[in-house]
Design a protein that fits this description.
The chain is mostly helical. Helix content is 60%, strand content 0%. Helix 2 packs across helix 4. The protein is elongated. The two termini are 39 Å apart.
């Protein structure tokens, strides 16, 4: 598995020096992790991921493993992932419109659905 530290760091517009300073390590050490000359320990990988705004799985070049107990949710997520941006927006909007109906909505913990609206930007 090839580390993705450099690609992620560059996509954020950060220099090696910036990331090294943020996690309090010498820039030479950080660079050796990117070049895979030296192994990064888990604690440092967590700190790098925090600075880069990604997961340790993303740093390691791993695709997140998604597991859903409900096969319908797994299917819905599969459809979402197979769509382009326009299709995804349409699917999310359709789900939003459907969730407004009392006949399909399940109220969990009262007014705890504010996270759904926030995630969709409403």
């Amino acid at each position: 598995m090839k580390l993705q530290m450099k690609r992620i760091r560059e996509s954020k517009g950060f220099s090696q020096q910036y990331v090294a300073d943020q996690i309090c390590v010498p820039v030479r050490r950080y660079g050796s992790w990117e070049r895979e000359e030296r192994k990064i320990n888990f604690e440092d990988a967590i700190r790098v991921a925090e600075v880069l705004g990604c997961t340790t799985d993303e740093l390691a070049g791993r695709k997140p493993i998604r597991s859903f107990a409900d096969p319908q949710q797994a299917a819905l997520n599969g459809y979402y992932e197979s769509m382009n941006e326009r299709g995804r927006a349409t699917l999310v909007e359709s789900a939003r419109l459907m969730s407004d109906g009392d006949s399909v909505r399940i109220e969990k913990d009262g007014a705890e659905h504010s996270g759904i609206q926030t995630a969709m930007g409403a």
